[in-house]
Amino acid sequence: MKIAVAKGDGIGPEIMDAVLSIFDAAKVPLEYEFVDMGKWVFDKGFNNGMTPEAKATIEKLGILFKGPMETPKGKGVKSINVTARKTWNTYANKRTFQTLYGVDTVFSKAGIPIDITIVRENIEDTYGGVEHLLTHDVALSRRFITRPGSLQVIRYAFEMAKKKQARRITCGHKANIMKLTDGLFLECFYEVAKEYPELKADDVIVDDLCMKLVTRPDNFDVVVLTNLQGDIVSDLCAGLVGGLGFAPSANIGDHICIFEAVHGTAPDIAGKNIANPTALLLSGFALLQHVGLLDTASMIENALLYTLESGVHTGDFGSKETPSLNTTAFAQAIISNFGKKPAHNPKPAMVDMPTTCTVINLDKNPMLESAEGAQERIVGVDFFLESNLQPEEIAQKSLRHGGVKFKLVNISNRGTQVWPTGSKFTNLVNQYNVRFEGIDETPLNQQDIIGLYVSMTGNFKIASLELLNQWGEKKGFSQAQGQ
Ligand code: NAD
């Protein structure tokens, strides 16, 4: 079987070489097709960080084993890692965090075992990276949470929890504040939970979840979250088990899967052959399990656990009393322990992944659409406009545009109502949301909205607008604070 391999940037080539040397020593029956991906490929003028040949190879083979890739902060190219996950719809990011004997943490010293799997939604949320400067002072990011996208990842999490015989599956969210976006994710969670009555399913608000994870991590088993919250919580969990050097990840889709470490390119130690290859090796085990090489995966994993237990370590962890090994020597130590069993938690040949993905040729993009509910109707519009006037002045100018179809309902600034009621203590920025709704039950259409838009542009620069949709009694828009 062939898989695609991209060594990546920074420490990527060093840790990938170490892991592949371990695979070769274990006679893993995989062939590797090395592909060109990473910052160095961007620098050669390929905007998505990969050559067309690399893209074609990965789409043909269906499995990519990759090292970390560099992304400039705040400016420049989009993350190649995020682009790859999104382009190939690897909707579930599975990250496993387990106590490793030989890797001392406050919890291992206190005898509290950790075995947490975070399933992070991998495509949506603010990672769409759809951002605009609405005024010179106001930046806006669009946060996409969709029903089909949420159902895909949540169903994967339940299926995995079932295979793993998990004690509990928890949804982390912020649905108390983001009632439509996180609210939709939570609704999907309990919808899927009904199909798995044998699993204990519950939810925790994400800030409370963080507090509970750092006090009693052993109370958690599988946790599913939206993209950004999942990203933050999984790094927190990496800290619980000894740091990023021990955090593997699998990006699961229906047709393409990507296996990589959670950590980045570690530019501060790149090129020194001192990086810890454990996280990439653990990601490699997930890959081996995924392709059905269960015995090989558990043999190498037992050798790794034995090595860690015996106090062998790289410079980023372990006792300061014993000298650390470099990346290559650490890999050799694991190879020399092939066939040995650790005293703690030896790995049986088992798999906790739901199913392997199937490689197919697609002739068109799959459309994910859930069944339509009640009839959708337009009941109003939010205009996001630039102004440094006071709320009352905005209201007076806006009121004259409503005509016979629209009434001005409210004006808010950064989500807080400032008209018809508000407080003089609310600080303002030069970007308002002016909301109009239909005067009566007469349905509105897009032409009505355009008419109002054109009229409003007589007084204001409008940066964007959002239709206010309603399905039956269900409103598809949030209220302002204080409304
Ligand atoms: P980082 O994970 O690269 O490094 C954070 C710290 O952890 C550094 O001190 C580093 O030396 C240490 N570290 C990380 N991996 C290690 C390992 N295997 N062994 C020993 N120490 C290790 O995070 P960063 O510095 O914020 O990011 C650097 C670059 O990596 C950025 O361009 C970022 O965008 C990219 N990145 C890529 C991925 C990915 O490819 N999936 C993930 C995260 C960050």
TrEMBL record:
Residues 2-334 form the Isopropylmalate dehydrogenase-like domain. Its cofactor is Mg(2+); Mn(2+). One of its GO terms (biological process) is isocitrate metabolic process. Signal peptide: none annotated. GO terms for molecular function: isocitrate dehydrogenase (NAD+) activity; isocitrate dehydrogenase (NADP+) activity; metal ion binding. The keyword NADP applies. It comes from the Bacteria. Pfam families: Iso_dh (PF00180), Isocitrate_DH_C_bact (PF18324). Its EC number is 1.1.1.42. Keywords: Glyoxylate bypass, Magnesium, Manganese, Metal-binding, NADP, Oxidoreductase, Tricarboxylic acid cycle. It catalyses: D-threo-isocitrate + NADP(+) = 2-oxoglutarate + CO2 + NADPH. Belongs to the isocitrate and isopropylmalate dehydrogenases family. PANTHER family: DECARBOXYLATING DEHYDROGENASES-ISOCITRATE, ISOPROPYLMALATE, TARTRATE, ISOPROPYLMALATE DEHYDROGENASE-LIKE DOMAIN-CONTAINING PROTEIN. This is Isocitrate dehydrogenase [NADP]. Catalyzes the oxidative decarboxylation of isocitrate to 2-oxoglutarate and carbon dioxide with the concomitant reduction of NADP(+). Homodimer.
